[in-house]
Amino acid sequence: MKKTEKHNYNLILGIVLTAIVLIPAVIGIFYTPYDTESMNLALKMASPSFSHPMGCDNYGRDIFSRIMKGSSITFLIGVGTVFWGSLIGTLVGAFTAYYGGVVDEILMRVNDVIFSFPSLLLALVFVAILGPGTYQVLFALAIAFIPSYARVVRGEFLRQKSMDYVQLARLAGAKDLRIMFVHILPNIRKVLISSILIGFNNAVLAEAGLSFLGIGVSPPKASLGSMLSDAQTYLFSKPELALFPGLTIIIMVLGISLISKEVA
Amino acid sequence: MTTVIKKIVGSVITILAVSCLVFIAFEIISGDPALAKLGISATEEKLAALRLEMGLERPLFVRFFDWVSGVIRGDFGNSYSYNMPVSELIGEKALTTMLLALYSFLLMIVITIPISIYSALHKGDLFDKAIQIVNQINMSVPAFFGGMLISLIFGMVFKLFSFGGYVSYSKSFSGFLSYMFWPALAIAIPKAAMAISLLYTAIVEEIKNDYVRTAYSRGNSSRGVFYKHILKNACIPLITFLGMAFADMISGSIVIEQVFGIPGLGRILLSSIQQRDYPVVQAIIVYIAFFVIVSNLLVDILYRVIDPRVR
Question: What is the CATH number of the domain that holds B278?
Answer without folding.
Answer: 1.10.3720.10
